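User: Hi! I have a protein structure encoded as tokens and I'd like to know what sequence might fold into it. I'm fairly new to this, so please keep things simple.
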């Protein structure tokens, strides 16, 4: 625990007000929709972690706003993949419109939003930041992999500007175990 605290302290020194150790634990409201923000493969890792925890979820990487009616919470898993976008027969603008529709519908219906960013594959593309900006300001929580290859500073800045708690996980391989440590009992 001390190791995690020191890592968090080091990573958050320049970002006052955002920490992985927050008084508010994660609250998951079932059933949960897990969807992609950028069509990477990371949503499958998040789905597997939730399944291991026995949390009722549905993975729909192409979810549209109409799909939210049956869910109590939506989890966006960020990660831009050109191959993923192409495989889904989407353009980047299609993905932006899809995400905007989901975020707006979630706000209209008071459906809590959580943003995961594992950053297991990062191209350094500006589109990654565009996707993050669409979701993070409306999220109740942000969950980051501490070893991610993505724009972690940008995510921290956006979370700080919007007073959003950030939770760090240190191992993608033990994602469910780490998430369980953040969940309210």
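Assistant: Happy to help. Inverse folding works backwards from shape to sequence: for each of the 185 positions I chose a residue that suits the local structure. Here it is:
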């Amino acid at each position: 625990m001390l190791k995690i605290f020191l890592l968090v302290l080091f990573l958050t020194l320049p970002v006052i007000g955002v920490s992985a150790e927050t008084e508010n634990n994660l609250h998951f409201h079932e059933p949960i929709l897990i969807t992609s923000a950028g069509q990477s493969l990371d949503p499958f890792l998040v789905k597997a972690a939730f399944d291991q925890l026995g949390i009722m979820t549905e993975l729909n990487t192409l979810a549209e706003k109409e799909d939210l009616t049956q869910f109590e919470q939506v989890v966006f898993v960020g990660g831009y993949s050109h191959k993923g976008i192409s495989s889904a027969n989407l353009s980047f603008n299609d993905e932006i419109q899809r995400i905007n529709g989901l975020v707006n519908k979630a706000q209209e219906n008071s459906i809590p939003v959580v943003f995961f960013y594992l950053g297991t594959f990062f191209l350094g593309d500006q589109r990654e930041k565009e996707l993050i900006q669409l979701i993070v300001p409306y999220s109740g929580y942000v969950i980051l992999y501490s070893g991610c290859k993505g724009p972690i500073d940008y995510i921290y800045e956006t979370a700080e500007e919007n007073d959003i708690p950030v939770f760090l996980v240190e191992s993608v391989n033990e994602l469910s175990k780490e998430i369980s440590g953040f969940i309210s009992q």
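A useful reference point when you look it over: Residues 13 and 19 are 9 Å apart (CA to CA). Feel free to ask if any position seems puzzling.
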